[in-house]
Design brief:
Elements (H helix, E strand, L loop, with lengths): L3 H9 L18 H4 L6 H9 L14 H9 L1 H20 L8 E5 L9 H4 L11 H8 L8 H13 L2 E9 L3 H10 L7 E5 L7 H14 L3 E7 L2 H4 L8 E3 L9
Helix pairs in contact: 5-8
Length: 252
Amino acid sequence: MPTAHTVVEHLEEEVAAPVIHALRPMLGSGGQLGSRAGVPCDSWRLAVEAYNMRGWKTVPAECECYVGHYMLGEQYRRDSRVVVDEAVAYAESLKLAGNGKDVWVFDIDETSLSNLPYYATHGFGSRPYNATRFNEYVMEGSAPALPETKRLFKKLVSLGIKPVFLTGRTEDQRAITVKNLRRQGYSGWEKLLLKPLGVKVAAVAYKSGERQKLQDAGYVIVGNIGDQWSDILGAPEGARTFKLPDPMYYIG
């Protein structure tokens, strides 16, 4: 199985046609795996990303290898790069008010920071979510940055657009989240919004409510990026939204 170290290496550098799984030596994005045994895992992933597949709990067991090879291969980085290239082009086209109130909302998990070191050893989403184990991983503060998202973050700061992190992580994880973000090269954000302890509300309602508070405080949300549809649905969404790929889990 891949280790946290090897996963970080794949996030930090690209090599041609890498062998990305020691026990399952297949190449690249996982396309070869999509047709094995008649399992339409590539079509399943498309349905997930297009928001046609909703409410699912785990990656189908027969698609574990496919999702793992996609996430660790070149295709995931290429797909993410396309999204961020569009986001950067959009940001560069904006005419800002210049009053310091233009903000861009960023999700954290699988958007700004990658939890692949965790999911690579927990079935790439094919096993039921274990909150205890996942939170133990979060508290290590070792999640690597997603390179494409960090590129967008730095571009926005240079343009005078203030990043705001809005995450489903809870307040008791604030200190380690700040430490993790800074360790991975993020700095200069305007706000870090975490969920209060004990709050039980759907992600769309929670995040749209927090965006409304930003708007009520006079901020203009010029952009919004996340890996889940629940990161970018629900008014006010922001002037424009961007969806990063993530076939490992669903948050409604």
